Amino acid sequence: SKSHGLWFRMVNRHLRCVDPTITIAVYVLLFPLFPFVLLFMRIRRGRYWRFHWVGKGPKPPLRDLTLGAQAGPRLRCVAISDTHMQHARLDALPLGDVLIHCGDATNFGRPDELRDFAEWFASQPHRHKIFVPGNHDMIFDEPYWSEYWGDWSHEPGTGLDDLLAPFAASGVHVLIDRTVEIQGVAFHGSPWTPKEY
Fold first, then answer.
1. What's the CA gap between 101 and 89, in Å, rounded?
2. Residues contacting residue 124 through CB under 8 Å, at least 6 positions apart
3. Are 98 and 182 in contact (CB under 8 A)?
4. Is 121 left (phi over 0), alpha (psi -120 to 50) or beta?
5. Partner of 191 for a Cys bridge, out of 9, 16, 101, 133, CB 3.0 to 4.6 A?
6. For the segment 44-70, what is each residue's pLDDT rounded down to a tens digit?
7. Is 98 in contact with 180 (CB distance < 8 Å)?
8. How is residue 61 annotated by DSSP?
């Protein structure tokens, strides 16, 4: 179609109108409404539009998501996962109240890998620490490990209680189908995944 300048090309694209005469007529009719639209809308961060409250009654408060904006006690959680024995190469983790490792701390779930990870995890400055084993931390799955440990490790391990001992000694919560409450917040951890996942 014949070009009528940038404005009309934009109008045609948005209204999917072929005839520029119809497009002009529509915008002439809508033009008086533009100041009212702009009055009840504002541009936020340059690209997001947000409606102002125009209903009856008090304006509902906007949620302020900045850290420290909400009253009352706060619990800051830092979550990591899939470190696969690269934990020593991580930069310093963000500070927080709870450090959560969501699984796959090891490559093959070997006892030596687990001991190395437990030592590093316990050394982190967070007051509370939670570890939920992943599918690579297979030594925590006792029936599987007792049958297949030779595929992954040179040592069979000595049982789940011995594996949990270094974590328990440093106050780390290992969540295997159990829940722990920290400052009134419940954390539940389960390492199970679908078999064919």
1. 16
2. 93, 99
3. yes
4. alpha
5. 133
6. 434 334 444 444 555 555 444 444 445
7. no
8. P
